[in-house]
Amino acid sequence: MSKSNYIRLDRFLSNQLNISRNDAKELIKKRLVTVNGETARLFDMKIDPVSDTVVSEGKTILYRKHIYIMLNKPAGVICATRDRLSETVLELIPEELRREGLFPAGRLDKDTVGFVFITDDGELAHDILSPKKHVEKKYFVVLEAPITENDIQAFASGITIDGGEKCLPAKLESGSKPGEVFITLREGKYHQIKRMAEAVENRVLYLKRVRIGGLELDGSLAEGQCRELTAEEVRMIKE
Ligand code: URA
After folding, report:
1. How far is CA 194 from the centre of its chain?
2. 207 CB less than 6 Å from ligand 1?
3. Which of 204, 4, 220 is nearest to 108 (CA)?
4. pTM exceeding 0.85
5. What is the spatial distance between Cα 83 and Cα 46, in angstroms, rounded to a whole number?
6. For residue 135, which of 215, 218, 219 has the smallest C-alpha distance?
7. Quick check: helix, strand or coil at residue 94?
8. In this model, does residue 2 exceed pLDDT 80?
9. Which of 19, 37, 101, 204 is the most exposed, fewest CB within 10 Å of its CB?
10. Atom of ligand 1 minimally distant from the CA of 188
11. Which residues are catalytic?
């Protein structure tokens, strides 16, 4: 590891434990932190986060450079980092997974439910959101009226919304009941599915994101619940 990847112990503790820098210093001052078995005495001691073993209050800290979370968003919550009026998706993240720099990678409307990916990894978020990377987002949609063969063709060749904006080709598939469909997009325009439905004289009654890339929303997560992703799942999300 290059020297530039060494970080100060107080900063490491503050990042990894989601505590303030002052609280991190307090732990060191109280001699509650060890590095490779030795009691740490200096706030600015340089540590290698990958190879050094840091123990705080008897617990070994498992270093994670970034954090990756799948949230099953309920309706009424907004995809933003903060808001004066509404609850945000970040407020649904439990304390132990919170970190500075977390944000939702992509927005669902306030009334849309389902898979929101939350991370502090800006590079990966950019890859998922960039229309050039073509990462798929799949939605379960309840429409007011059943779809037609013409609608499927129109989605496949690229719908024009609001009389001008052209969408990339999208997949429209029937679900198990009339009006229930799945729509798969490779981009994320504002209110895109609602506007696509309007373009074929239909209306969205219910919208849920069920997959990002190759990763399905975990069916065991109730609305409002979230969990950390495994390294394999993070890889799948990029597919
Ligand atoms: N399309 C929409 O119209 N709304 C969403 O939240 C996501 C896709």
Report:
1. 22
2. yes
3. 204
4. yes
5. 37
6. 215
7. coil
8. no
9. 37
10. 8
11. 109
